[in-house]
Amino acid sequence: MHLVPHSSFIPRSPEPKTLVEGAYLALRRDIINGVHLPSTKLRVEHLKDRYNVGAGTLREALALLVADSLVFTQGQKGFTVSPMSLSDFLDITNMRVMLEIEALAQSIACGDDKWEAAVIAAFHRLTLSEKKLVKTRDGDDDSFFLDWEQRNEEFHSALVSACPSKWLLQFIGILYHHSERYRRVAVYNRKDNQRDVHAEHEALKTAALDRDIKHCTKLLGQHIMLTYEMVSKLP
Description:
The chain is mainly alpha-helical.
């Protein structure tokens, strides 16, 4: 099984405010995209020219990636891209299911009309992006993923946005971004996929607005697990 993200995927990033932040975002993008493959060494002397920053700045950026668990370091042996495996993805997926179900239940219980409007708006933007995804499904242009990934994240964030626990939302955000590397594998192999992601999102939106906590949380758990199941069946 080749758990390697496709290198043409380039996620949208905010404008960096410092050199360290700029190097961090660029490195993070390239790790997620598979430019730097899992389990490969990241040598500062080679990377500083690629990212046009000094060695000190680059080390600070790599330290931030260590905090994100996208990079690890052992003693004085330098930095290495974190490996990818099905067991790791299953762990991420199980944690996402557990935490997002709780956050969604709290969000539905606490959400007001502004929350409903945010869910509706995010779903509308995601629907427009999903139409682009369908149009490019049989083509070689992967640029559709730029917009779709952003809109997908916005929709999932909108669903849980009324959850009052900032720590719960923070951990969900970390896990969501860790699943990006694996989600890209699933999307890159989308041509043989019969999954109707739009229908899944629409069912989530409807159940959330109906305030059906039991049904909506069940749908969310199934929705998250399906991506793992897809990746686990890849050759």
